[in-house]
Amino acid sequence: MGMLIDPFEELRRMQERFNRLLEEFGRFPEVKEFRVTMPVDVIDEGEQIRVVADLPGFSKEDLEIYFEDGDLVIKAEKKEEFEEKKGEYLRRERRMGKVYRRIALPAGLDIDAVKAKYNNGVLEITIPKLKKDRKAVQIE
Fold it and tell me: Is the CATH number 2.60.40.790 carried by domain 37-81+90-131?
């Protein structure tokens, strides 16, 4: 059995070395970590599909959800708030910006009956499956 390789592991190591180098020279902003910015779970619960996405730091008004070409699209955008603060940042990791996920879903979903709720940084979307009509076929 072959080894499972993370193609971004070497990038992460290089980034850590680069961040340590910058910190040795003083107060430089840390390079943003290379990672998936919106982890999601997609669960088939029999009668419905449930999508759970982690979006900490956003408000409900920052989120946009829609369907396009059979995919579920989740967007979140947090604009930078410019306010006067005393002092200077020694480290600033809480960034503003956009995150985007496009999730392929199975066919046969009732997208007109979708429900979404957002609580404590977790977005939960439920999409009911269409009822399958069964029709008997007369054999001649």
Answer: yes
